[in-house]
Amino acid sequence: MKAQRRKSKSRNVPRYHRFRLSSTSGHILPLQTIRQRVSGIWKSLTWPMCVKIIKANIAVTIALGLLFVDSIRELTGTGIILASVAVEFVHPAKSYGFIAEDVLLGSVMCCVSASWAILGSYLASLVRNPNDPEMAQPKVCAILASFLVFGSFCLNLFRVKVEQANVGGMLSATIMVISLTTAVTKEFSPNNTLQVLVPTLVGFFIIFMIFFLVFPENSTKVYMQQLIKSLETFDKITAVQIDSFLRENSGSPMEVTNKSLAEINNTVDILISALIQKKRMVRREPSYNTVAPTDISEMTSLIKKMRVPIQGIGLSRAMEENMRNAEKDVLEKVKIDNDINGRPRSYYGGTDDEEEEEDGSLSEEDMSGGGAVTPSGSFASTNELTVTSRTRRRNLLWDDSVKILSYWREDYDDILEFIKPIYLELSYACSVTMSETVKRLRRLQGLDPRYQDKPFFYKYYYRFKNGKNKVEEESAQYIYDRKVDPSTYLYKAMRKFHEHRLNGLERLYTKSGVPRRILFLLLTFQFNLHLYAETLYTLASLVYEIDCARDKKKFWLPHINLTQWLFKSQTTDDVFDIDTPVAIAETTNPLSLQRSLTRRATLIHHAADIEAQPQCTIYRLETPHRGKVHTPTEHHTFHPYDYGENPSKFVNPWRQNTLDPLDYHDPDVAYPTTRTQYFFFKVYLFMMRNLYTADVAFSIRAAVIVAALSLPGFLPESIEWYNEARGQWAVVVALIWMGPSVGSNFFGTMTRTLGTFIGAAQSIIIWEASRATEWGLLVLTFIFNLPWWMVYINGKFWKATGLFSLITVSLIIGYSYYYLETNQPISVYRVTYERTVDVLVGVLAALFISVFPFPRTGRVVLRHRIAQTLSELGALYSSFLALLLKNEPESVCIQRANRKLFRCVASSIRRQIKGERVLLEQSRFEPALRGVFPEDKYVAILQILENILNLMLEMEQALAKIPHEWRMTIVSNTWKERKVMISSYLNALHLGSNALTSKAPLPPYTVRPTKARRDLTNQARQQAVMKMSHLGDREYTYFSTYLMNSEQLAVEIELLIANIRDLVGPDSVSVWLNYKH
User: Fold this and answer.
1) 198 contacts: CB under 8 Å, gap ≥ 6
2) Spacing of C-alpha 1066 from chain mean position
3) Which end of the chain has fewer CB atoms < 10 Å from its terminal CB, N or C?
4) Where residue 594 falls among pLDDT bands split at 50, 70, 90?
5) Mean pLDDT in residue range 595-615
6) Where is average pLDDT lowest: 370-379, 425-434, 936-945?
7) Which residues lie across from 556 on neighbouring strands?
8) Where is mean pLDDT largest: 301-315, 387-401, 504-518, 782-796?
9) 552 band by pLDDT with thresholds 50, 70 and 90
């Protein structure tokens, strides 16, 4: 009982606030609510977006106006309505380069689809019996239906495989369905198909010419605006994080604006993704600008390099904040006795090797709780005497430490106060350099922040409102001396930082010369701050060189060739929208990272060192590289500043030789040895990769739904009313808007039905108010379409609602006017009713096919996708970061190739996590029939996965700078502990992956990742290379960064496993051990 009381007393202070056991992810960022998404539509409405809305509305009005021309209407019939539909399918938020891609590929696909329909109609006419008065003859219908079903299968498969085929796929499906279903009741004639093909091509031409000729958008200007926005945001984030770490302006309102690490990661990712999208716009378009497309590619590569240091600074701040929160929590709960002498350990200076093993480990239940670590039971020995002795010792150590806890905090605060000026000076130099760089970027493109995103006439209004003198005073703020290099000031600050960065840090060692963990944290902060300044120096010098070299505007050709466009993934803004076919591909095709990735060494070539001043020692980290302007030939040859996120054009880096005897492992069959076995293995491999996939299954479902909905069009009993009701549109809606899962179809049913009802109501109002006059219909349609263009362009979540509203208005107005002019007794109300029924039948059929014969729920796919991501993170860690164990140096070429491969795979995993967020969004709309979906758990897991990936990138960044000899010095003396740590990490990741895949409960830990990492840290800190005499070595700083990120990685892995355990449950052995001990 006494031992239990002592144990309870020793746990009065919550151990989950320990420095090494605190997560840095911050609070969980919830998914956006419907209200937030609706309000975001209005906030994103700017003048450039208004221009796009007006241009798109003009294009659709012109296309609708073609219907009112008698000669055109008589030549094309109702097919001219497809011109408006084609305009509406081309998303107007894109630049004219992307629109040109949609138009060109869409035109080709529509022509191929029309040719396929003509071929099917011709073959059907060959078997038609001219003596049979019945038009729906069995042979004719069989051929047409076969062509329709097979064409739908191939078309849907192509849309999923090729990202650029979205628009062309939707319109070519429309042409194929209408042509083949109407061919049953018509004699063969190519004109029947051309009547729907030509208006579609005309619609493509109209939308492209409007965007190309009317207020054409300068993609380079758009890129520069996004680049300036990203740089200014990065500067604000780093300034706030640095001030927060250094406790500068403590208590000021700045602390309120301090973001969590998860918010920083999200903001940086959004800005970099948007910048990459704008760069792809520039590469696709000819332009007349000062800045070359190659300059933009190089600046984008440097901006992507800033991701790691910015997130590293935020990570350092989060770890330091966890440390202070733990200290504050202790001081609030325990009174400090000032009569005790001595300087025991603390959160700031304590060494973990002074602690008991049990003190650093948490039980199975300690890490559970959905993102918050909570204290619970502990492991105990069966020997009661041993339990009592250990408990008493731990209790004495804890009581002793909390009494004089403030000593090490005061030492740390004194050192921080002493070295703060040099950090702040470098931070200020970064801000000044960033400001000067932004000025040059604005001059290069002729941007003025006062008139940015404003109408062209706002400049004159602004001058009239504020006066000429004030405008000239404000303009003077943007003037700079072009002969002054802004990177020079930053270079001097970095030099001074090298001289004084280690001042006072010798106090952060124990009496025995062992470095304390807070020293590693400070060196980690130094590493990330210097890396940020180094990258900014290269960017600033590059912009300065561009400003000096690019004096006049030139005509630049597109910077992308046909091979890259066809075979290289080009992620667009709406890639992860839950309505696009690209989302289908991303959510059904996880990556396939093999275990046998190319192993890499970590020695990279250092540039020339900074010249040392004779009066002082410069503790160098790495020499910054100056930016240089390159010609297009040099850019394509040498790829300067290449961040290495993109794989080779023809080589898939994570697909290795599957028949390598050393890497081949299959529990079902052994390695093929004969030619027959080899042949059937290749056949099996081909079928697994190309036939037994989610893409093919999805395309088969699409073919089934097309066959079912078009069946009335091939039966004599129903063919008449089917054509009169335009039932083909139900097939079109189901085919092109079918989602990959139950959740996406539920969501699509809601948004598309809502858009159809809105469009139907608007159509009746427009028809009645205009009295069916041509100009009245055009003007009212133009006015009523404006808000739904805004929803279609800005409301990514509600995009389908805006699109269906626009299409419904065009179809109802078009068909009603055609029936009126051809004296057919069909009113607008009947047309509205038929259109609404067609949409409802199409979306409900898509929903039905997603449930039967078996439902493909998004939550199940999400669980398997997360399991796949966990497995690939484990492979990424074992293949690259475990190379600290490698005992052979490699050539520089192999090192660079492997590092680029690492960045490529990491970028692919990041895109996969984005695809999993799409699945999570879809899963919210699935009905909770068997129980409520644990959304908060999956949100937490995805956030932790992203944090783990960022930690691995930070570790790789630091590890790549450590020479081979220095690494092997550490490895040779810590082999046993390192092996335990790596196995603990990999066991946790792969066990979590297998648990999510098979829903198996998790067993108890053999060795916790945090425990294994702590043991390795304690052993590494006692090595000779970690003594104070080596503090000035750059490798010391690099290894400290690697070590701190590795420790935090252990925390995140345990937190991840805790959330997975909450989903799958603990093993019965774990429950029994926690209860018994």
Assistant:
1) 76, 79
2) 32
3) N
4) very low
5) 33
6) 370-379
7) 287
8) 301-315
9) confident
Give the tokens for residue 922: 């879809």
Question: Which residue shows structure tokens 């309870």?
Answer: 8
Q: Per residue in 330-358, pLDDT tens? A: 555 554 444 444 433 444 444 443 333 33
- Main-chain dihedrals φ then ψ at residue 568, nearest 5 degrees: -110, 130
- What pLDDT is attached to residue 339? 41
- Residues in contact with 919: Cβ distance below 8 Å, sequence separation at least 6, in sequence order: 587, 741, 743, 858, 859, 861, 862, 865
Q: What is the spatial distance between Cα 200 and Cα 112, in angstroms, rounded to a whole number? A: 13
* 3-class DSSP assignment, residue 441: helix
Mean pLDDT of 349-377: 38
The helix (run of H) or strand (run of E) holding residue 104 is: helix 96-126
Contacts of 835 (CB under 8 A, 6+ apart): 726, 729, 756, 760, 808, 811, 812, 815
- Alpha-carbon span 175 to 85, nearest angstrom: 12
Integer CA distances (angstroms), 364 to 361, 712, 886, in order: 10, 60, 33
Q: Higher-confidence residue: 476 or 312?
A: 312
Measured CA to CA, the distance from residue 1011 to residue 573 in angstroms comes to: 43
CA distance 328 to 1063: 33
Q: Which two tokens stand for residue 69?
A: 């021309």
Tell me the mean pLDDT in the region 186-190.
87
The count of other CB atoms within 10 Å of the CB of residue 688 is: 10
Task: Using DSSP, state whether 554 is helix, strand or coil.
Answer: strand
Q: Which residue has the tokens 């003037």?
A: 479
Q: Which residues of 818-855 are buried (b: 16+ CB within 10 A; e: fewer)?
A: bbeeeeeeeebeebbebbbbbbbbbbbbbbebbeeeee
Task: List all residues 6 or more positions away from 483 whose beta carbon is below 8 Å from its beta carbon.
Answer: none
Contact at 8 Å (CB) between 211 and 96? Answer: yes
Alpha carbon distance 836, 264 (integer Å): 45
Q: Which two tokens stand for residue 4?
A: 């239990």
Q: At what angle do helices 81-89 and 166-182 cross, to 10 degrees?
A: 160
Using alpha carbons only, what angle is made at residue 176 by residues 174 and 182, rounded to the nearest 5 degrees?
Answer: 100
Say if residues 611 and 594 touch (Cβ distance below 8 Å).
no
DSSP state of 555: E
Strands (E), 647-739: none
Residue with tokens 């300690």: 366
- For the whole prediction, is pTM greater than 0.85? no
Task: Provide the pLDDT for residue 356.
Answer: 38
Cβ contacts of 946 within 8 Å, gap of 6 or more: 262, 265, 910, 913
* Helix, strand, coil % in the chain, rounded to nearest 5: 70, 0, 30
- Whether omega before 853 lies within 30 degrees of 0, making that bond cis, reads yes
Residues 707-744 pLDDT 10s: 999 999 888 888 888 888 888 899 998 888 777 667 67
Q: Dihedral, CA atoms, 1049, 1052, 1054, 1058, nearest 10 degrees?
A: -160
Q: Evaluate the CA torsion angle 770, 774, 777, 783 in order and state its sign.
A: negative
Residue 615 has pLDDT above 60, yes or no: no
Mean pLDDT of 1002-1027: 88
In the DSSP assignment, the letter for residue 508 is G
The residue behind tokens 């395309």 is 699
C-alpha to C-alpha distance for 998 and 93, rounded to whole angstroms: 43
For residues 178 and 118, the answer to whether their CB atoms sit within 8 Å is no
